[in-house]
Protein 1
Amino acid sequence: MSLRVDRRAVSVAVLLTASAFVLAVLLIGTGDFPIAPWDVVRTVLGNGSPADDFIVNDLRMPRVLVALLVGAALGMSGAVFQSVSRNPLGSPDLLGFGYGSAVGALVVIILFNGSAGAVAVGALVGGLLAGIAVYLLAYKKGIQGYRLVLVGIGASAVLVAVIQYLITKAQLVEASRALVWLTGSLAGRDWAQVWPLLAVCAVLFPVILGHGRALRMMEMGDDAAYALGVPVERTRLLLMLAAILLTTAASAAAGPISFIALAAPQLARRLTRSPGGNLLTAGLMGSVLLLVSDWASQRAFGADQLPVGVVTGLVGGVYLLWLLVTERKAGRI
C-alpha cells in the first residue's frame, strides 16, 4: 500500500468535482420555469416550496443524475480501453460497443415493439455480445492495441450496416422511434433510468478503480507487467468486461452518446499531466462534458432544443479530427 498522491491530479479531481456540482445546480434551475441556484440547493435539502419540489426532484433531478452517471461511465470506460490498447483512438465509440448496443435496442424496437425496459435490456445484451466478439476476434496470444482498434473499426462497419438494414425494414412508427433512440438524448429521463444505472456504477466503479495500479503497469507492456506480478490477461479481461458493461449501461439509459468516451480521458490526462489511465479524473471529466453539452443542447440554440447526442457528435467530430492530425504529426499513425 502506498499513500503517495499526485497533488496536481488531486487538485484537478477536486476542481472537476466542484465544476460538476455547479453545473448540475445550474442545469436543474434551467428551463421554462427558471429556479435560482440557491433555491435549487434549498429544495434539494427539503426546504423548497411544493412547486419547486416537484420541478426539481421529479422533473429535472433525474435528468441531471443520468447525465452525471452516463458521463462518468463513458469517461471511465474510455480511459480503460485507451490504456488497455495503449492507443488514444481505443474508445468504445470506435470499437463497436456502442453500435452493438444500438443493434440490440433496434431489434427490440423494430422486431418486437418492446417497452422502454425491454429496449434497455436489448441494448445491454447487444453491447455485451459485440464486446465479446471484438475481444475474441482481436485475441492472438494476447491483445495488441492496434489489432483491437482495427477489429473494432471493422465490427463497427458491420454493425452500422445491420442498423441501416433494420431501419429500412421498419414501419414508420418503429423507424421514428429507432431514430430518436439512436440520436442519444437525456430528455424525459426519470428515476426509472437512474436507479439501475446507479447500481451498475456502484458495483463497477470500485472494480475499475481498484485495478488502477495494475492498469498503469500494463501500459509499460505485458512483459514488464508480468515481471511486476500483474496477472495481465486476467486483469485485462476483467477491466474490459467492466468497461463494456459501463458503456452498454450508459447506452441503455440515454442512447448512444458519442465521443465522450474518446475525449474525456485525453482531456483528463492533459490536465493532470500524469501517466496511466487517470480513471477518476476521466470519469469526472466525462460528467462535466456531458453536463455542458446538455446545457448547450437546451440553451445555445434558442427555442430549438437539440438532443445532447447531436452536440457531443458535433464537438467530438472536431476533436477526433484534431487528434488524428496530432497523432499523424507525431508519427504514431
Note: The mean pLDDT is 85.
Protein 2
Amino acid sequence: MLLRRLMLLGACLGALFAAPASAQDRVLNVFNWNDYIDPYMVQRFTRETGIRVRYDVFDSLETLEGRLSAGRSGFDIVVPTNEPTFSRLARAGGFRPLDRNLIPNLRNLDPVLQRQIASSDPDNRFGALYLWGTIGLGVNPDRIRALAPDAPLDSLALLMDPTHARRIARCGITMMDSAIDVIPTVLRYLGRDPNSTAEADLRDVERALMAIRPFIRNFSTGGAIEAMAAGQSCLAFGYSGDMIQAGLRAREANRGVTVRYVAPREGAQLWFDLLAIPADAPNPEAAHAFINFLLQPDVMASITNHVRYPNGVPASRALVDPEVANDPAVFPPDELKASFFTIGPVPQAAERARSRMWARFKAGR
C-alpha cells in the first residue's frame, strides 16, 4: 500500500512539475478511491492539457459523503458509488449537472449500463460511469483449507457461519469498514431483501454479525489489499478489484501467498462508480476536461489494466491486456452476472439505525 501510494504521489508531482508556467493557475482537485487510477494517466492529462492535478484519496463511502455533506470541500471531481451515496447527494443538490457539450466522449459509454445507472441518476444528468465491480470475498485458499478443509470457498458462509469463521480466524479475517456495503450483502445471505429497512431484518443482521465478531481481526477497506497480499489475513470481505490487486501484489512479492477473488454463489452486490462534479467545484471547466479525457477508450483500457476493474467504455475492451480481458473475476460471465444484485437508496432514518448498529458491531457490544 505504501509503495502504491508513493507511486501515485510521484505521478501527481510529476504532473505538477510538467505543467507549463503559464498554466500554473489551472488546477484540478480530485477525490477518488485509493488505488483506483493509473497514475501515468494523471501525468498524461497534465501533459496534454497543462492542468495540474491535486489528487486525494478515500477508502469508504462514509468518508466521501461526510466531506461533501460538510460543504466547501474544494474538490472538482469526486467518484461516489451510484447507491446510496451518489443518488443521495444528487437529490440534495450536491452535484453540478454535466455539460455534455464539454464532454463529447460521453458517447463512448455503454448505453446498457447507462440505463441501469439511470435509476440513480435520471437522464444520466450528474454522473459519468467510471468503473464498476462487485463486493465479495478475497480468499487465500491454501491457508483456509489447512484450517477448515470442509469450508465452502465459494459461499458467504465462509465468513458468516461462525463454525467456519472460528477456525479461519487463526489466519486472519478482515472486514471492510463500511455499513453501506456490508449490510445489503448480509441481508441477501439471510434470504432477505438487500434493500430492507425493516427493524426485524436489521436485528437479524446484527445477530449474524455479532456471531462472527469475535473472529474478525480488523476492519479495513483499502487496507485489505495489503493485508491479503502480505498474508496478514487469509479472508477478507471487500471490493472485487481490490482483491484481484491483492493477488497480483502477492504474486509479485513471491512469498508463497495466493489470493483469489470470489463472487459468492448467494449473489454479489453490483455497484457503479460515477465521475461527478460537486456543485461548489472551484474549477468546473477543468473537471469537464478530465472526465472527457478519462472516457477515451485507450485511457480507460490503461486504467482497467492497472486497477483490475471493468470500465464503462465498451471500445476499451479490445485494448485491455488479454490476461485481464479474459479473467472472469474482472469481466464476469453472463451466467455469474445473473446472480448479482443492486441496491437502492435508504431512507435517512433507516440509515441512522444502520449506522448505530454498525457502531455496536465494531465495538463488539
Note: Residues 2-18 form the longest helix (17 residues).
